[in-house]
Amino acid sequence: MCSRESIEPMKLRWHFFHVANFRRQYGFKKSEIVAGPNIPSRFQWIGKRLLCSGAGALMILLAAGVAHAADAKESKEPGFAFKLGDNWRVTPYIAPGYTPEMGGLLAAGGLFSFSTSMDDTVSQRSSVPLAVAYSTTGALTVSSVLTSFWREDHLRIPVDLWFKSMPDHYYGVGYDDGRNTPQSDSTTAYNRTWFWFNPRFLFQIKGPLYVGLDWDINYTRADDPGTVMLEDPTFQSTGEEVFNHGLGAVIQYDSRDVPVNAWRGTYFSGRARFYGSALGGDFKYQIYDFDFRHYFPLRERGGRTLSWQVRTRLGKGQVPWAELSQPGTPFDLRGYRWGRYRDKSMLYSILEYRHMFDKGSGRIGPHGMVGWIGTCSLGPKVSDFKNWLPNFGIGYRLEVQPRMNVRLDIGFGREVDGLKPSLYFNFNEAF
Fold first, then answer.
1. How sure is the predictor about 80, in pLDDT bands with cuts at 50, 70 and 90?
2. Across the strands, what pairs with 272?
């Protein structure tokens, strides 16, 4: 057994997260890093320059990709991707974006794809998008989502890895707090440091059925909390610093043709994770996650897909404020501020139509569009799912490697003062 005291000498919780002290070390005040009309002129100037340069750099990269795609007709290399050796392919990018929680941002990174074994003719190519973003509010984020296939698809290892150091806002717990709490620098603002590492190890039982291990490590620290956070009972019960370590089991059925961009098939995942002091965590709680997706092809040769997802995340025990269910990520209700709404349990559903345009020759081309509608409800338990958040949006798709897309989504969510748009730039589909 591993206790909290036994892992503290490793300094895991301290050295890595000293990045959050950057603002204090360099004299930034909370009022200088919260988005809004009070941003100093030097930050507004820098932000505008970043966004303009990001847009220009994106156009240059796309132009280079078009030229490379022209050469690819002869070499049969994927368009918009560059070859690194015999195995690796990379699509680099620099692009501007906007989200409710980060404001205007500039992101850079790339989509890397590879085969885990050159002799493996069964497994699909693995992919790992990597993104680093900096925003006009002073937020820094690093994210990567690995989808990997091993040993002739007998083993799959997906991994989520995120780090954020950013000014944020806390509105309380529940639908009413998220809907009605006004945002201000003196009441809701705080500085958040967040780290999340979540690998899963899935072993094939038969055909599309897999079972395996679900491992989760997450850490959150709140600096300079506002009055809303300080007076919130959930925050008071768990404190400003939260470290959680959980293990669990996962069962997965996956008949999708291409998991990162499915045109047909069904996906179901059931996950149960258990957290507690025995693993070195601060709090004892459980998370049960059920995710169902179906992809219905609207024509035999692909490129026209009606997809839908229904997912519920249920929390039991003393779930800390930082690990409550929160819609508004780039992978669910695109258009809401990530963290505005939070509660122990959540249910959401999304219906999305995906359309890839044909070339003049009748073959499926690299350009596409999507449109979606969705809704979500939160509460302490399932019986409290009564108030529903509406969501809709449209998006553009560009195939940069075979069956791997860049996605540019504009999502709309209902904020206090009406519908507000958000712009998301990511690799691969939201679900």
1. confident
2. 249, 288
pLDDT for the residue 79: 65
Q: What are phi and psi of 181, to 5 degrees?
A: -75, 120
Using CA atoms, how far residue 356 sits from 35, 294, 301, 303, 411, in Å, is 37, 18, 11, 5, 19
| Per-position b or e across 62-94, b if 16+ CB within 10 A of its CB | beebeebbeebeeeebbbbbeeeeeeebbbbbb
- CATH 2.40.160.50 is the classification of domain 4-427: yes
Amino acid at 265: G
Cα separation, 261 vs 237, in Å, equals: 42
- Residue 328 sits at φ, ψ, to 5 deg, of 110, 10
Helix or strand holding residue 61 (H, E)? helix 41-75
Structure tokens at 37: 């009309």
Q: Which residues are 220's β-sheet partners?
A: 194, 242
Secondary structure class of 198 (helix, strand, coil):
strand
Strand partners, 419: 414
Domain ranges of the chain: 4-427
Total-model pTM: 0.83
DSSP count for the chain of H helices, then E strands: 7, 17
Q: Are 353 and 411 in contact (CB under 8 A)?
A: no
| Beta-bridge partner residues of 104 | 98
Amino acid at position 401, single letter: Q
362 pLDDT band, cuts 50/70/90, is confident
